[in-house]
Amino acid sequence: MTPEHDPVRGAGLGLRRSFLGALAERPPERVDFYEIAPENWIGMGGVNARRLRALTERHPFVCHGLSLSIGAPTPLDLHFVRQIKAFLDDHGIRAYTEHLSYCSDDGHLYDLLPIPFTEEAVRHVAGRVRQVQEILERRIALENVSYYGAPGQELSEIDFINAVLSEADCDLLLDVNNIHVNAVNQGYDACAFLAALPGERIRYGHIAGHDVEAEDLRVDTHGADVIDPVWELLDLAYARFGVFPTLLERDFNIPPLDELVREVERIKQIQQVHAARSARCAADA
Q1: pLDDT tens per residue across span 135-189
Q2: Which of 39, 59, 84, 131 sits at a 20 to 30 Å CA gap from 70?
Q3: 104 φ, ψ to 5°?
Q4: Which sign does the torsion angle of CA 159, 165, 168, 169 carry?
Q5: Cα(130)–Cα(167) distance, integer angstroms
Q6: Which of 203, 172, 169 has the alpha carbon at shortest distance from 6?
Q7: Per the confidence metrics, is the pTM higher than 0.70?
Q8: For 46, which DSSP code?
Q9: Minimal CA–CA distance to 13: which of 178, 255, 260?
Q10: How far apart are CA 219 and CA 161, in angstroms?
């Protein structure tokens, strides 16, 4: 991968304010990079802003946005996009990603809603992505999102994602947990879905936990430990695409930092197994 497609390395952690103080005092050595939502930090002052600045000066950071609303029917908030650019530049952020979703109409809806899987939506989203990339002066990556309904569906989820990425010429934030959640909820093969993604566009990955509401219903909460089928899918992703930077998300029921770091270390262990296997294959060749 080119440096642009490999902005960070190793295993990362989504930074949350609940453990910001602990990070500032003793950053875990096993965490290679951190991710923040820029909306939660733009314009912030005080001690938390100073702590964030100290961390972004010492560690690699990426940003995962919450409110760009790339698929919304209303015009892009260009003032907000310019705020994002200033924040990314000011903190030396390595990559900016968003959800392939939308969260606003005449106002913010405070939820990530599914974009209709249609050709018209492909063109609409791709045009907005190109506009954002031009303003930011950098490529962005879109995350494959969890969803619980597909209104007006004309394309399959995988065909829609691939069409948007291709027409917009942007990158992919590969959320492994969302593949598992959608595969259960929508009744498709997670491994086949993974295999159909464009590996060359992966900037980095997410892994997270979810809630089991019923045998055929998973809810993407980021509020539990990562389960074995999701770890296995991450292992398969590395086997297919090579090792890519991967980050643990945890938004609710947040345990002590040491427990989160143990899950980050499991990411690193899987990465190291694949890196060693690749090195052996290269040596044999």
Answers
A1: 999 999 999 999 998 888 999 999 999 999 999 999 999 999 999 999 999 999 9
A2: 59
A3: -155, 155
A4: negative
A5: 9
A6: 203
A7: yes
A8: H
A9: 260
A10: 21
Domains of the chain (ranges, CATH numbers): 3-284 (3.20.20.150)
- pLDDT at site 193: 98
The Cα–Cα gap between 97 and 30 comes to 23
β 217-219/211-214 pair status: antiparallel
Residue 226 in tokens: 């990562």
* Cβ 8 vs Cβ 60: under 8 Å: yes
Q: How far is CA 266 from the centre of its chain?
A: 18
Torsion of CA 39, 43, 44, 49, to 10 degrees: 100
The tokens 């595969």 sit on which residue?
183
Contact 173, 140 (CB under 8 A): no
Mean pLDDT value across residues 195-206: 97
